[in-house]
Amino acid sequence: MYLTRFRINTARSGAHALLASPQRLHGAVDMAFPEPPARDGGGPRVLWRLDQAPANRVDLLISSPGRPDLTHLAEQAGWPSLGTQGWTTFAYGEFLDGLAVGGEWAFRLTANPLHHIRREQDPVGAPTKRAAHVTVGHQVGWLIKHQERAGFAVLPREQATVENTTEAVAGADTETGALPEQWRYQLIVHDRTPVRFPRRTERSGGRRDAGSGSGSGSDVRLTRATFDGRLRVTDLAAFRRTLTHGMGKSKAYGCGLMTLAPVR
Fold this sequence. Notes:
Elements: E1 2-8, H1 13-20, H2 22-30, E2 47-53, E3 57-64, H3 71-77, E4 87-91, H4 92-97, E5 104-111, E6 114-117, E7 129-132, H5 136-150, E8 152-154, H6 159-166, E9 187-198, E10 214-216, E11 219-233, H7 236-245, E12 258-262
Antiparallel strand pairs: 1-3, 1-4, 2-3, 5-11, 5-12, 6-7, 8-11, 9-11, 10-11
């Protein structure tokens, strides 16, 4: 496994085109591998994510079973004169092997939180439909609901912090002192962005990530949210699978990649 960081040159017109369409960027990431791994769930897959940084910096992170060659991306949306120095690739497998149950980490995850609904006007027995969670509370609830299966537990806030925060938080229950769910954990949600872009029809028959978004005509729509927080590893095998297979839907469109950093 490898983890790669590529800095996008936002002054280039090619970068603008890629950033405007997750489908185009997905295709560019796939082209970094002569034979992209299958996305049938049988093994680790290629995952990617865009991270915003200070001074209008945008980084592309890629997790992959094989080492990528991003020469084409450097020519289109980077600094071609840097050659292979335009991106950095780390041996991710060694890091994954060093994880242990009980380990605590800071994490970042960009995901597409979804749930299944059945509308009142739908006939009895009609199948449910996927719908996006759009509020912070529901997005946090989605993550907490899926954390056990994913092999981790988001760390709760310390009791003293909860007590000091209760009165200042809008929506807190003043009688019981209960905080809204999103404030009970060491977790923040940001970049809660509805995404809409034209669907590209490719003659090569490119596969679309099942459940990745709803199309309206020729458009794809999805809602992304980025979670920053702290977690504890609870199930090593499941957690490694989360890191290498992704979490949630829309993996082809820049969702599902979780990365870790030491807790400070």
